[in-house]
Each structure stands twice: as structure tokens, then as C-alpha cells.
Amino acid sequence: VPDEVVFATKTEHFKAMLLRAVEAGVPFAWVTADEAYGQSKSLRWWMEQRSISHVMCVKTSDTVITRGAGERRVDDLVAGLAPQAWKRLSAGKGSHGERMYQWARIPIRIWWENGHGHWVLARRSLKDPSDLAYYVCYGPVGTRLKDLVQVAGARWAVEECFQSAKGECGLDHYQVRLYHAWYRHITLAMAALAALTAVRAHELSKGETAVA
């Protein structure tokens, strides 16, 4: 725990945490994040320079560089897709079952570098076709559409984890002004959530064994 906390932007914190994971040898294949991080082109470029595969949510108005067409908005690129380009895929299970959407991707910067490629990924609601979300992706050339979809959907599980920690363990119920006090509260809340998750998994496994 540092004696002095120096101000840093969200992007700087993101880089620092990611570097710590890389230097510690934490095994991971992909990184994903919401618009707060995805809209930072410098962050995406920073990850590319380190061959860190990622699926980053971006704003509708965000632009990407394409081969031959120059800089284009992501929504303009997706608007030109043929109907058959869209595939119905699940982004993972949610509280109400499978998260089904229509998904499509467009290769950009067609020249593959170091065995990696770039894509714009789009997610469209089944109920409201005008409800779309966009992602800028970077990963191995052999990456499939369903691989990008799985990575994009993984972020929701993390967000649900934080919501559970807030609701069940008081993650956000602190009234402190000192860093050390905040750090202890957050650590205790996350440890409590881990314990509750282990107990729940154990009880569920017992129930499955009894049914079998």
C-alpha cells in the first residue's frame, strides 16, 4: 500500500494493472473493457504494441482506419453490412438465460501484422434492430466471430460480480477518507464475496450429486 497516492487517470490505472498481471505471469488470452477505456485510441495502440489481444467497447461515433477507405466511423461501416453478415449468437448466460443477440464483424487494416488482425464487432438487439453496440478488436488472425462474442460477453460477468459484492457484502458501503481504511474495506468485502461464492458452489454441487 503506497504512503502517498498520486492522481492517475482511469487509463493510467488500467495500464498499471495490466502490466502487473503480465509481469506476474497471470495467464490470460484477452482483455475487454467498456467505453470508458475502449474510446482511448492510445490505450488500444499501447496494447497492440505488446500483442495483447482485446475487445474494447467504443462509442457509435468512434472512428477506425481502414484499408483503402481511410478513417471511417464504426456505425457507418456496420450500416453497409449485408443481412447475411449477421449471426445469432449467445454472449453467455445471464440471470434470465442465454444472452442472445445478432453479431457481425468487419476486418479493418487488412494487412495482418505479427499474426494479428483487427476487426470492428457489432452487437444488435433481437427485439430492437436500432439498438446496437460496437467494439474495436485486435487478436490472432485465426480468431472466429464466436470467439470475439465470448470475450465481449465476459465483461458482463465481471460487472455482475461487482453488483453482487455491493448488494451482498457492502462493497460500496464505506464512509472513509483515508486510503488504508478504504483498501481494507474493499479487500474484506471481496474476500467475503469469494467465501460466499465457494459456499454456494459447494451447495450446488451437493444438490447435483443428490439428483444424479
Write the layout of secondary structure elements.
Layout: H1 10-23, E1 31-33, H2 35-38, H3 41-49, E2 54-58, E3 63-66, E4 70-73, H4 74-79, E5 87-94, E6 97-113, E7 116-124, E8 132-140, H5 145-169, H6 179-211
Parallel strand pairs: 1-2
Antiparallel strand pairs: 2-8, 3-4, 5-6, 6-7, 7-8
Please describe what this structure looks like.
It is a single chain. This protein has 212 residues and is α+β, with helices and mostly antiparallel strands. The protein has 2 domains: 10-152, no CATH class; 170-211. The protein has 6 helices and 8 strands. The strands form 2 sheets. Strands 1-2-8-7-6-5 form a 6-stranded mixed β-sheet. Strand 7 and strand 8 (132-140) form a beta hairpin. The protein is globular, with a radius of gyration of 20 Å.
Give the spatial strand order of the biggest sheet: 1-2-8-7-6-5
> What fraction of residues sit in β-strands?
25-35%
Order of SSEs, N→C? HEHHEEEHEEEEHH
- Count of helical regions: 6
Keywords:
globular, 212 residues, alpha+beta, 28% strand, single chain, two-stranded antiparallel ribbon, six-stranded mixed β-sheet
Short synopsis of the structure:
It contains 6 helices and 8 strands; from the N terminus they run H-E-H-H-E-E-E-H-E-E-E-E-H-H. The protein is α+β, with helices and mostly antiparallel strands and 212 residues long. Helix 5 crosses helix 6 (179-211).
